[in-house]
Design goal:
Layout: H1 11-23, H2 30-42, E1 49-51, H3 54-64, E2 72-76, H4 81-89, E3 93-97, H5 109-114, E4 120-126, H6 136-144, E5 147-151, E6 167-171, E7 184-188, H7 191-200, H8 209-214, H9 233-266, E8 286-289, H10 296-305, H11 321-326, H12 333-341, E9 342-345, H13 353-373, H14 383-390
Parallel strand pairs: 2-3, 2-4, 4-5, 5-6
Antiparallel strand pairs: 1-7, 6-7, 8-9
The structure holds pyridoxal-5'-phosphate.
């Protein structure tokens, strides 16, 4: 089965973990600190704070930036639920904003502008698929006195990720571009904000666990209501191995995306691929937007029968029952349309060029058959569908 994503883990990670086990110090320590420094260097930042997950990092970034109950935060709905959930953790209200278009499934500046009000405090943008959002978001935030936060879960290793946000949060979950199993990293423009995140990840204590290991007599204060969102040495050791490979892995993701582009073009399906080849990206996923009115589940099933796994990014967050009951009147037509048509194909560095050809050939066949199995869902066939069937 060609999987949508697959972690790359081997002897190097095993040896690094074994080193931690024999070192006698397994909780947060010097490897976590080193991982933070290497990560900061990779993203041209002065420092970084490692946390237990991107979700925890988003929570702490919002807290450290002073987002509070009563505040509103503009968020995408075309994202993982954690983006909006983190806003709820601090008691603020997520305000869902539509995407630009099916070829640019990023938060829409114009829709965001129309949803700004006196309570709007921040914008949380997400680099969908690893493709970086428009840097104009910085000016958008500055003109309105808003905070800007980047959910960079998809964008680890992309030059420019973290360049515009007051805070930026990355994920090392198992399906991301690099992994520590669970884990995340926070960058912040203001060193004081980053220090607040560092304190809040460890119970709000003013002295770190490593300092206390070396000098257990050190007195400490608890100055803020913190959490236990620390990373441990096992994860940092894995992270240090992974991050050394990340640039090569991301370059391979780019090459594979180029092969997809070529093969989709050859199959007459280039129109299904969002973004263009010059868009800065970490190439996290390979999303396609199918013509309207096709039976996507049937296409996914046909691909699966041919050994190709697919997935969807994402079911819109505002339609989950948790949010639908909270904000029943939200309508995001472009997000909803995109989510109905999007199909994510396999993309990870273990694939070879032939795998990509297999996937695209399978997709082309599934699209041809889809027309006869389940021609039209809801109403007349679209022009896109007619063009697709004609091919
Ligand atoms: C994976 C992901 C998260 C959550 O990351 P965790 O590290 O699993 O908490 C948040 N936002 C987006 C867009 C993601 O893809």
């Amino acid at each position: 089965m060609l999987l949508v994503s697959e972690p790359i883990l081997g002897q190097e990670e095993a040896a690094a973990v074994a080193d931690v086990i024999t070192s006698g110090w397994i909780s947060m320590g010097r490897r976590v600190r080193e991982f933070e420094r290497v990560f900061a260097d990779l993203h041209a930042a002065t420092d970084a704070v490692a946390v237990s997950s991107c979700t925890a990092g988003l929570h702490l970034a919002l807290l450290a930036l002073g987002v509070r109950p009563g505040d509103e935060v503009l968020v995408p709905s075309l994202t993982f639920a954690a983006t909006a959930n983190a806003v709820r953790y601090v008691g603020a209200t997520p305000v869902f904003v539509d995407i630009v278009s099916s070829s640019t499934p990023h938060l829409c500046l114009a829709d965001a502008a129309s949803k700004c009000g006196p309570r709007t405090k921040a914008v949380l943008v997400m680099h969908y698929g690893g493709y970086l959002v428009d840097p104009a978001w910085r000016a958008f935030a500055d003109e309105r006195g808003l905070l800007l936060i980047e959910d960079a879960a998809h964008a680890t290793g992309a030059a420019g990720a973290g360049a515009i946000g007051d805070a930026t949060v990355f994920s090392f979950y198992g399906n991301k571009n690099m992994t520590t199993g669970e884990g995340g990293m926070v960058l912040a423009r203001d060193p004081a904000v980053l220090e607040a995140v560092r304190t809040l990840r460890s119970h709000g204590m003013t002295v770190s666990t490593i300092d206390r290991q070396q000098r257990p007599e050190l007195p400490y204060d608890v100055a803020a209501l913190g959490y236990n969102y620390r990373m441990d040495e096992v994860r940092a050791a894995i992270g240090l191995v992974q991050i050394a490979h990340l640039p090569a892995w991301n370059a391979r993701r780019r090459q594979l995306t180029d092969v997809y582009r070529r093969e989709l073009d050859r199959a007459g399906l280039i129109g299904t691929l969002p973004f263009d080849s010059s868009w800065p990206s970490a190439y996290h996923i390979l999303p396609l937007v199918l013509p309207r009115g096709l039976d996507r589940a049937g296409i996914a099933e046909a691909l699966r029968a041919n050994g190709v796994q697919t997935s969807g990014h994402y079911p819109p967050v505002h339609r989950f029952s948790l949010y639908a009951s909270l904000c029943p009147d939200v309508r995001l037509p472009r997000t909803e349309d995109f989510a109905r048509r999007e199909l994510t194909l396999p993309l990870h560095p273990k694939l070879d060029d032939t795998d990509v050809r297999t996937v695209v050939a399978g997709l082309a066949a599934a699209l041809r058959d889809a027309a006869t199995i389940s021609p039209y869902q809801g109403g007349a066939p679209s022009d896109e569908h007619r063009a697709c069937v004609a091919r």
